[in-house]
Fold:
Amino acid sequence: MARVVVADNDPDALDLLLMDLRLEGHEVHGAPDAARAQLMIEALDPHVAVLDHRMPPGEDGLSLAERLVREHLDLRVLLYTNYQGIDLRLRAAAIDVPLLVKGNLRALRAAVIAP
Structure:
């Protein structure tokens, strides 16, 4: 299974994702913001990073995703967010990062194990 870092500033949403992905058999680590997610990614060398987009007051998930795509070529990066604006979709597509609708756990599970 995959080693996954999940970043979400909503503690309830983060807990749900951690529990769901662990039940799927993944090794999952949670971060409450982009800065801590980056530190975890550097330390744990995960296969997948699942990022919420809006994580105030710090860096947003798309900005972190853009950096991760450049710096970690083997890392699969997913945006899992309620925000689905056209600008976000276009920027995510430009860096080849899937934009998943928050709450659709089936799509998230499939994306985590996708080749």
About this structure: Strands lie at 3-7, 27-31, 48-51, 76-81, 99-101. Helices lie at 11-23, 34-44, 61-71, 86-94, 105-113. The first helix runs from residue 11 to 23.
